[in-house]
């Protein structure tokens, strides 16, 4: 019986736990509630993935109202994969949050913090699970609003302006998506994604549908932080509390990429988007510019969180690059990099949070020579950095391999060369951080010691995942390949 | 005439661009929020007006009425309005906190204060 | 013990040694013993692999399969065996040397040093025994990363800068050029296994083959083909034992080894010989040989001179690879061994001179032969090997390379080899000659016998003797090298 309700449970569990956290006045109780809810959500997502792998896509009608009139949750392989990622990060980051959030957020606000966390996770899970376009908008706003709150809870007062800027830009993006959905509804009369997919091919010649595609893509690109709509990201990642940066870097943009895949391949169809509208001519150059300009900007950053935030913009460029190739191998590379990048950035931001916890700041001067006092933390930074560069035996290498292979298969050897050149830029900015930690003399008065176990353990879980999935890619690459094949086939 | 018959869309476009312009061009944070509201309102009008069916009555089942206007967009827009209200509330709360922290809500003034850090 | 388990041991022994070094960090004597034990055990294991291979055993190890069709696997073939034997033997000698040097110099961070050394050797073993290009690339990158802490050991600003050039050039070429070539090969060939005769499909356009080969030759930055040679002089900022083993044996040898392996087992010698587009590569390599020697002549700093000499000598091996005739390839493989023994002796001497006499510039080393006769004597012997004169082993490899060049019909290259020999004489021989026969610089106190620390001397004598031994007992090496192209 529970098995039938799994799709809705995936969203409802964190959603209901959120107000419970508000009722719990104590930060620690709120944390315990969140951890329980997150673990339950993780269990549900694993169960969903196993079911989808065995039996094919799951369709769930909310409230018993059948699609296309009722809201439908539709979980196929790609959705199950992203659900797993989000719930995994949401669960792994919470033990970390226990100490880290307590240090960075005022104690009376902690219940709000955990409540917002659960709402954010619930929203992200809802975006992934739903098969209804407007429902997607609703969950998008749920997750976005809670994200603005989470970012605004940072210590530095610049967190407030970062949250405000993120709010303005994010709302514009969400409103664009709303316009796009509205235009689609206007033309087809339905909001259900599968139904839209059936009705749109007859209407693709109309200007309305083309405008809808444009609005949707711009709105999603804002959420995805695709160059040049990425301006909110560096500040939001840099000034948010450390654990929030972990959550954001590892989930928010990944879900936006999922939304892009869903709309482009499932709703509109690859032939329309890439054949008639030639969107690859827009996406590919933007992706390449994202990779290079963001990596170059990262090199000159002093605040290491901002450095890795710009790095995230560059990595998103890689994901969009894979999408713009519009071949099964390119899509596989993009979907794979979704997962891998989440692991990389999750580990890196967790390690940075360890440094922030002990040293109080995360600029290069504050990190000088700390590697000796915080060996585990800095080893995690090196490992995450090597993964980012794409050194073999890490997930980053597997992503790069698939991307280069996809580009070469398409005959675009210059894109392959550019992808690898972007990695070289990554070497530069990663090495700035490594050098600061290992090769510079520490300030004389540091009393820093290694971060506590509850911070180090989740960090190293993610680092180990980086290496494990870099050697055993059956789960990630295998799933990505099958999901890509299904997407290219057009049917959800 | 075609142009006049599409007057609702003209209003939508006008409001959308006005709102968007205010968001981008104004440095005062409250004004940005107002612009955002205008922008969102234009979308509401888009949805609501597309629900109207020519010759359709209000969507309440009555005897003798054949054609009803579409009630679904109204429902969608209620949701969107609530979302808009929540967003505005959150934005204004942030503006209050920013005023406490910086002493001003003008964007360039805030930039100047941050740059000098 | 199954033969394949021996292959596992060649990877696991140095890694276990690294772990032991880290655990024993607070007990220097125990730590040094761990290094020596690991080095000896590794050589025994590699020798056992050699014996098993000679007896005809087939040894393969499959570690994992990260991507379908791309396993992490090890296997044994003559070229890899040659490299592994040289590297593992010289690890023992270098460890002996390093112990004396690091203690006499009162170096810090010695635990990190010995641990990184062991990991580098494990990577080198992985490179040597890689069964496919994917595995080789993984261990190749691991070697770069494992040697970085060794290069920046001093921790000074200069060391940092040297480390940046080192990492920048090596990672730049490996990610930007080599990885591109590898993925391209995978795309056209469907496999990356090393097979005799090559794996490229016959219908591949010769122009593309030439471009692909160039990607490999320039992408394998550890071979120091100009213009990607800058990392080698930059890495001289490292302590001398590091320079000795890694830049005279493991790192650069991994580079030229990889080029040879790619030439023989990915492209196939016949395929390359039939590709007209790679002639210009021969000119680039010839330029490397000559320019390296010319720059070496201008350097007064001994380590810098030796570094450029290495750049030039590595060009010999690459030349043999690009010539792609049987004798040239065999000669290149033999040169790996000869140059290793010769160069390591020279670097050991440089370090000994630094520790005992505190001198780094050649102009100050006149008359040093009186104070350090054994060191300078070994220097002389090793110089003969590099130059290619009897009774040192370097003569054989130069001979084979020249014959290989004749085989390929490139008379000009024979001329290049001869010219380079003359240049070698010019920049190497004056050093020991002036050490023995010139009076010391004015103003320095007359010193009696003041040789390097005992373990340094022992290492120097072993490797110098090795150079001479390789002259007389070259047959096993030649047999192994020839079986690469014939077997």
Silhouette of chain A: globular
The CATH topology of chain B, please?
Helix Hairpins
| Uncertain stretches of chain A | none
Number of helices of chain A: 19
The CATH architecture category of chain B equals Orthogonal Bundle
Which labels suit this protein?
heterotrimer; A: 492 residues; mainly alpha; two-stranded antiparallel ribbon; 78% helix; 2% strand; B: 117 residues; Helix Hairpins; elongated
List the helices and strands and how they pair.
The complex is a heterotrimer of chains A (492), B (117) and C (487).
Chain A: H1 2-23, H2 27-55, E1 58-61, E2 72-75, H3 77-104, H4 110-129, H5 133-152, H6 158-188, H7 193-199, H8 207-224, H9 232-239, H10 242-268, H11 270-276, H12 280-299, H13 304-325, H14 328-359, H15 375-389, H16 395-409, H17 413-439, H18 453-471, H19 474-489
Helix pairs in contact in A: 1-2, 1-4, 2-3, 2-4, 3-4, 3-10, 3-14, 3-18, 4-5, 4-10, 5-6, 6-8, 6-9, 7-10, 8-10, 9-10, 9-13, 10-11, 10-13, 10-14, 12-13, 12-17, 13-14, 13-17, 14-15, 14-16, 14-18, 14-19, 15-17, 15-18, 16-17, 16-18
Chain B: H1 2-5, H2 7-25, H3 29-51, H4 72-102, H5 107-115
Helix pairs in contact in B: 2-3, 3-4
Chain C: H1 3-23, H2 28-54, E1 60-67, E2 70-75, H3 78-104, H4 110-129, H5 133-151, H6 157-189, H7 206-219, H8 231-234, H9 240-267, H10 269-273, H11 279-298, H12 302-323, H13 326-357, H14 368-371, H15 373-387, H16 394-408, H17 411-428, H18 430-437, H19 454-472, H20 475-486
Antiparallel strand pairs in C: 1-2
């Amino acid at each position: 019986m529970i098995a039938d309700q799994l799709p809705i449970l995936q969203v409802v569990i964190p959603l209901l736990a959120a107000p419970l956290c508000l009722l719990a006045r104590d930060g620690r109780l709120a944390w315990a509630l969140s951890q329980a809810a997150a673990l339950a959500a993780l269990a549900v997502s694993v169960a969903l993935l196993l079911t989808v792998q065995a039996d094919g896509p799951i369709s769930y009608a909310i409230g018993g109202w059948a699609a296309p009139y009722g809201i439908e949750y539709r979980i196929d392989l790609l959705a199950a994969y992203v659900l797993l990622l989000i719930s995994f990060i949401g669960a792994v980051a919470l033990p970390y949050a226990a100490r880290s959030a307590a240090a960075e957020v005022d104690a009376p606000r902690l219940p709000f913090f955990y409540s917002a966390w659960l709402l954010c996770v619930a929203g992200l899970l809802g975006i992934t699970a739903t098969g209804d376009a407007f429902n997607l908008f609703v969950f998008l706003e749920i997750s976005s609003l809670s994200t603005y709150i989470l970012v605004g809870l940072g210590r530095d007062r610049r967190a407030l302006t970062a949250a405000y800027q993120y709010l303005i830009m994010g709302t514009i993006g969400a409103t664009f998506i709303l316009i796009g959905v509205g235009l689609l509804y206007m033309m087809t009369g339905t909001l259900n994604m599968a139904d839209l997919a059936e009705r749109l091919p007859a209407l693709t010649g109309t200007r309305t549908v083309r405008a809808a595609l444009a609005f949707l893509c711009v709105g999603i690109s804002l959420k995805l932080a695709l160059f040049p709509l990425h301006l909110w990201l560096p500040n939001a990642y840099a000034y948010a509390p450390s654990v929030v940066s972990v959550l954001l870097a590892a989930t928010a943009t990944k879900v936006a990429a999922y939304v892009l895949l869903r709309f482009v391949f499932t709703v509109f169809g690859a032939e329309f988007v890439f054949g008639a509208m030639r969107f690859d001519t827009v996406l590919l150059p933007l992706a390449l510019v994202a990779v290079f300009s963001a990596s170059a900007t990262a090199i000159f950053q002093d605040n290491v969180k901002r450095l890795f935030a710009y790095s995230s913009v560059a990595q998103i460029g890689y994901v969009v690059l894979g999408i713009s190739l519009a071949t099964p191998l390119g899509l596989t590379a993009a979907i794979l990099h979704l997962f891998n990048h989440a692991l990389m950035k999750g580990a890196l931001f967790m390690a940075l949070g360890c440094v922030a916890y002990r040293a109080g700041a995360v600029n290069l001067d504050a990190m000088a020579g700390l590697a000796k006092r915080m060996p585990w933390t800095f080893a995690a930074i090196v490992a995450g950095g090597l993964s980012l560069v794409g050194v073999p035996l890490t997930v980053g290498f597997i992503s790069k391999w698939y991307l280069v292979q996809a580009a070469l298969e398409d005959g675009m050897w210059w894109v392959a060369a550019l992808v690898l050149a972007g990695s070289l830029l990554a070497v530069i900015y990663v090495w700035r951080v490594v050098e600061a930690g290992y090769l510079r003399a520490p300030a004389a008065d540091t009393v820093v010691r290694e971060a506590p176990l509850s911070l180090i353990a989740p960090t190293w879980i993610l680092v180990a995942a980086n290496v494990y999935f870099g050697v055993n890619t059956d789960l990630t690459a295998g799933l990505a390949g099958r999901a890509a094949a299904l997407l290219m086939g057009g049917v959800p | 005439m075609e142009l006049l018959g599409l007057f609702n869309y003209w209003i939508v476009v006008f409001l959308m661009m006005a709102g968007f312009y205010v968001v981008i061009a104004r440095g005062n944070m409250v004004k940005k929020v107002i612009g955002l509201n205008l922008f969102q309102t234009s979308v509401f009008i888009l949805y609501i007006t597309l629900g109207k069916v020519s010759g359709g009555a209000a969507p309440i089942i009555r005897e003798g009425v054949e054609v009803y206007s579409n009630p679904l967009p109204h429902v969608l827009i209620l949701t969107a309005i609530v979302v808009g209200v929540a967003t505005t509330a959150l934005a204004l709360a942030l503006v209050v906190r920013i005023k406490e922290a910086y002493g001003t809500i003008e964007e360039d003034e805030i930039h100047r204060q941050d740059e000098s850090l | 013990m199954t033969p394949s388990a021996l292959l596992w041991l060649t990877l696991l022994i140095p890694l276990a040694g690294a772990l032991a070094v880290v655990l024993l960090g607070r007990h220097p004597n125990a730590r040094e013993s761990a290094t020596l034990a690991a080095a000896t055990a590794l050589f025994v294991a590699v020798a056992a692999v050699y014996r098993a291979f000679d007896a005809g055993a087939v040894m393969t190890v499959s570690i994992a399969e990260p991507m379908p069709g791309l396993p992490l696997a090890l296997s044994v073939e003559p070229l890899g065996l040659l490299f592994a034997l040289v590297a593992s033997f010289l690890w023992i000698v270098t460890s002996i040397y390093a112990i004396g040097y690091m203690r006499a110099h009162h170096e810090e961070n010695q635990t990190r040093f010995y641990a990184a050394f062991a990991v580098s050797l494990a990577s080198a073993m992985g490179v040597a025994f890689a069964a496919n290009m994917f595995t080789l690339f993984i261990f190749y990158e691991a070697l770069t990363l494992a040697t970085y802490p060794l290069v920046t050991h001093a921790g000074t600003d200069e060391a940092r800068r040297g480390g940046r050039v080192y990492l920048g050039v090596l990672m730049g070429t490996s990610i930007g050029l080599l990885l591109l070539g590898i993925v391209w090969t995978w795309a056209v060939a469907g496999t990356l296994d090393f097979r005799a005769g090559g794996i490229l499909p016959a219908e591949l356009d010769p122009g593309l083959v030439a471009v692909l080969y160039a990607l490999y030759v320039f992408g394998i930055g550890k071979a120091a083909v100009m213009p990607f040679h800058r990392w080698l002089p930059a890495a001289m900022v490292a302590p001398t034992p590091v320079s000795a083993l890694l830049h005279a044996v493991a790192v650069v040898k991994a580079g030229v080894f990889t080029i040879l392996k790619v030439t023989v087992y990915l492209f196939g010698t016949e395929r390359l010989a039939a590709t007209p587009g790679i002639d210009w590569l021969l000119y680039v390599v010839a330029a490397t040989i000559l320019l390296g020697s010319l720059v070496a002549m201008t350097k007064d700093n001994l380590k810098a001179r030796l570094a450029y000499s290495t750049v030039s000598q590595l060009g010999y091996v690459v030349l043999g690879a690009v010539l792609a005739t049987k004798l040239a390839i065999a000669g290149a493989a033999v040169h790996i061994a000869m140059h290793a023994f010769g160069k390591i002796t020279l670097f050991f001497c440089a370090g000994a001179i630094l520790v005992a006499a505190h001198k780094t510039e050649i102009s100050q080393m006149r008359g040093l032969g009186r104070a350090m006769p054994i060191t300078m004597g070994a220097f002389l012997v090793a110089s003969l090997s590099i130059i290619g004169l009897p009774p040192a082993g370097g003569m054989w490899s130069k001979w084979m390379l020249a014959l290989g060049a004749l085989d390929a019909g490139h008379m000009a290259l024979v001329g290049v080899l001869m010219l380079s020999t003359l240049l070698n004489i010019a920049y190497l021989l004056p050093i020991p000659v002036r050490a023995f026969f010139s009076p010391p610089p004015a103003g320095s106190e007359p010193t009696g016998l003041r040789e390097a620390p005992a373990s340094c001397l022992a290492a120097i004598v072993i490797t110098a003797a090795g150079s001479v031994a390789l002259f007389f007992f070259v047959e096993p090496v030649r047999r192994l090298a020839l079986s690469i192209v014939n077997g």
